[in-house]
Amino acid sequence: MELSSVYPHSSSKSVKWSPDGKSVAVALNYRLLIRNSLSLGVVGLYSCNAEVSDLEWSPDSSYVACLMSKRSLIQIWPASKASSTSTNGQEWSCKIDEGIAGITSMRWSPDSRHIITVADFQIRATVWSLINRSSFHIPNPKSATQGISFNNSGSYLAVLLRKESKDFMAIYNAESWELVNEFKIDTFDAVDLSWSPDDQTICVWDHSIQYKMCMYSIDGRLVHQYQAYEHALGIRCASWSPPSGQFLAIGSYDQKVRLLNSLTWKTVNELSHPVSLARNDTVVYKEVSSESAYQPFTYALDESAALSISNVKAPVDQPNPKMGVQWAKWSPSGKLLLTKNENMGNTLWVWDPSKPSPLSLLIQRNPVKSVVWDPVNDRFAACSGDKMLYLWTSSGSSCIQIPNGPEGEFTIQSLRWRNDGKAILLVDKTQYCICYLDVGEESS
Asked: Are 253 and 232 in contact (CB under 8 A)?
């Protein structure tokens, strides 16, 4: 394993790998820097009209869109010289200005030739074409960051709408942008939606005040409706198992994850996060102090017969209480499920979906801030907002201390894997570096 030099950035949301893994885009105030992911040499440098608040790579890695939310402006830059020249021989660039409508969020379409923006107060969503400069409006989107999703083949766009105090879903053709279908959905206040991996089903879940999950086909037919309980805070997260979507994992505020079979819509397993846990076959790694000056903390195997996990009770009289299952993330093979119960914020749970007890537990010193699966292998990296990087594989776990950068102590706030699983982008509040891994090396 090797660590790169440390470089500055101006926004933690604006340090991202290109989808092909060959480059890293970084915002530094009003400048956009594009670095080679191996040498980290600067291969592109652009000056924007204002400070960059967010950036997004196009799916084909040809362009980078920079959002300047204070100016309601987006500037799009070519990522390489091959895409920097237009048909008339001039250097290509693009600017999108929403004016007084404002821009809250942006995202690329799968064809990398359209940008979708959402205006302030969700007045409208707009599809902007980079080919013919045309624009298309979608009125009344429910949210700027949720409820807008392309299917996995990139042929359809599903959007949650709010009209006349009721929830609707609109389906658009992603090539012609024609409205394919629009129908009312059976929710009180829908939060988000997700396409199944086979693009046959769209699941929509309700606001946390009510447990309800609705599954719809693209023609608007209600395929199934699931409700585990009533009169309590409901769903917090949901995710389909790759690659076929055989299971749908639903995490809720009652600190449980329920696995539904996508063929029968029956509950096949219920994963609890108890305070006291009998060991069974669970492998427990606990972060403890080390005597080494170079490695102050390490993992120790906890082999006690019974395990007690600290549980923090969140105040239920406040909005959005920090309780229940915050994450339910599948490994790339779909054979493992990683969960975090926010009542036990220092603990990560790794499950075999076919078993009632966890396969492994990681108990940290500090609450876990970010955890991401390797896109290729069944291993993950985690961080807790300190100097330590944590790696887990089925054969073992490790703690790695990151040295300080030129701007002071380097504390990892977020992680981003490269598409080949051979490198991790480590992002601090003001600086970042890259951790290069040997994909054949098993951490232990």
From this structure: yes
* Residue predicted with more confidence, 346 or 305: 346
Q: What's the whole-number average pLDDT of the chain?
A: 92
**What would the DSSP string read from start to end of 84-95?**
SB-TTSSBP-EE
| Residue position matching structure tokens 């999108």 | 96
Q: Which residue has the higher pLDDT, 88 or 246?
A: 246
Kindly state the helix (H) or strand (E) to which residue 35 belongs, with its residue range. strand 31-36
Nearest to 192 by CA among 165, 167, 175: 167
- Which residues, listed in sequence order, are joined to residue 65 by a DSSP beta bridge? 56, 76
Answer whether residue 185 shows pLDDT above 90. yes
Q: Return d(Cα 166, Cα 323) in angstroms, integer.
A: 28
**Residues near 5 by Cβ (< 8 Å), separated by ≥ 6?**
40, 433
How would residue 442 be classed by pLDDT, with cut points 50, 70 and 90?
very low
Q: Is the pLDDT of residue 438 over 90?
A: no
Long-range contacts of 432-435 (CB under 8 A, 24+ apart): 432/6, 432/7, 432/9, 432/15, 432/26, 433/3, 433/4, 433/5, 433/6, 433/7, 433/402, 433/405, 434/3, 434/4, 434/24, 434/37, 434/40, 435/1, 435/2, 435/3, 435/4, 435/389, 435/400, 435/402
